[in-house]
Amino acid sequence: MWREKKQSASFRGVPFYVYSGSGEVGRRNVVHEYPLRDTPMVEDLGRAKRTFSVEAIVVGADYMAQRDALIAALEEFGSGELIHPWRGVQQVCLTSPARVFESADEGGSAKFSLEFTESGENKLPAARVDTVATLAAAVDNNQAVAKADFASQWDLSGASEVLDDAMKSTQGMLDYADSVLGPIQDGMAQLDAVTNKLQTIISAPTQVFDRALGSLERIKGRLENPTAGFSFFNSGSLDRLGGLFGKTKKVTSPKAAQTSVAQVLPLMNSTPTRAAIQPLTPADQRIARNRAAVDTMQQTIAVTQAAAALPNMPVAAQADLVVVREQIFAVIDTLLDTASDMQYPALLKLKTAAQQVIAERLPAASVLQSVLVQQTTSSLVLAYRANGNLEAVDDLIARNDLRHPAFINDGRVIELVTV
Fold it and tell me: Diameter of the chain by CA atoms?
């Protein structure tokens, strides 16, 4: 009887016949019964999984080869494509071990009892690396290691000139930071500078490090809130043209992030100028080591603070983010070349965590393209042609430093973000 009713099917491309099948469909309902209440409450948790029970058979002179091929398909990892004679194409998993029947009475065939369940994508819950938290942990770790590394190298023993030079080197580093970042404005930092004078903490290397950190951690705030700005006309639609000759507003420069990184770069890759010293005596050798320790401390804290600003640094275009990345990574690579055994792994983790943050931000950033102006036109026209809207016009004007946004001469190459 089954020979006349059998239907063709396949799983993972392996053919077989189906002579009967069944399935389960419905809803995932949970029944809640409460004391002293006659009617239960049914909670609907969504559609139930669909299952397919299939009674299959392979038959023929080569049925053993067909049987073994189907068994191999059923034992493969993951889900597979089931072509069901009545349900069509389904992505399923074998959720119960298949039962295989063979008998001498029905030679030349093998029967299978198969239980399939529909299979979808693992969308939720889905694990994702918290790149911001990972970077924050790497920043804290790198600074903690830098503090321990600095303390291990700080040596004020011996002649009094060692102490005097340590004072001058540390104060010179703090003055250098102020020359780049400006005077300290934060009230707590100012209070710390008064209560923890160098004369009182110079022999405690961890306090010296904390004092340097208090000065250099301003880098993070500077990069997260760039102060660079340009004045030009108000935003609007076509009435913007009237503003070109009158009203202005202050906006952040599109290149403010990379400009700010460039401004603080001296703290990351250079140090204050000092009189050279020949490390001929033990005292001079300690002076040289202390100077090197101060320089490494300054550069390590500076680049760590710059990396810490990456998640919140205002960057409009992918190209801008790449420039910032290269500026910071170049400093880290230089520090890695001379890093101690203690500092090297921490710097490497910092670079890896920073790269993860940048990789996560890149797809969301706008693409920067270069446009050759074919004939004299306005910034409004260029922005609208590129994006179909005027959202990028402010960026276009500031990025290209256009003095006359309504008249861009032909032959000029304009950088424009696509939004």
Answer: 108
Structure pTM? Answer: 0.63
Please state, for a pLDDT cut of 70, what percent of the chain lies above it. Answer: 85
Concatenating the DSSP letter of every residue in 190-235 gives HHHHHHT-HHHHTT-HHHHHHHHHHHHTHHHHHHHS---EEEEEPP
Query: Average of pLDDT values for 228-237?
Result: 37
Compute the average pLDDT of residues 137-150.
95
| Secondary structure of the chain in HEC code, one letter for each residue | CHHHHCEEEEECCEEEEEEEEEEECCEEEEEECCCCCCCCEEEEEEECCCEEEEEEEEECCCHHHHHHHHHHHHCCCCCEEEEECCCEEEEEEEEEEEEEECCCCCCCEEEEEEEEEECCCCCCCCCCCCHHHHHHHHHHHHHHHHHHHHHHHCCCCCCHHHHHHHHHHHHHHHHHHHHHHCCCCCHHHHHHHHHCCHHHHCCCHHHHHHHHHHHHCHHHHHHHCCCCEEEEECCCCCCHHHHCCCCEEEEECCCHHHHHHHHHHHHHHCCCCCCCCCCCCHHHHHHHHHHHHHHHHHHHHHHHHHHHCHHHCCCCEHHHHHHHHHHHHHHHHHHHHHCCCCHHHHHHHHHHHHHHHHHHHHHHCEEEEEEECCCCECHHHHHHHHHCCCCCHHHHHHHCCCCCCCCECCCCEEEEEEC
Residue with tokens 């001469």: 409
- Residues near 131 by Cβ (< 8 Å), separated by ≥ 6? 311, 353, 356, 357, 359, 360
Span 245-257, pLDDT tens digits: 343 333 445 666 6
Is the N-terminal amide bond of 125 cis, ω within 30° of 0? yes
Asked if residues 379 and 409 have their Cβ atoms less than 8 Å apart, the reply is no
192 band by pLDDT with thresholds 50, 70 and 90:
low
Average pLDDT over residues 289-296: 93
Exposed/middle/buried for residue 170 (C-beta within 10 Å: 0-12, 13-18, 19+): buried
pLDDT at 45: 92
Q: How many residues does the chain have?
A: 419
Is it the case that residue 10 has pLDDT exceeding 50? yes
Residue 184, pLDDT score: 67
* The pLDDT of residue 22 is above 50: yes
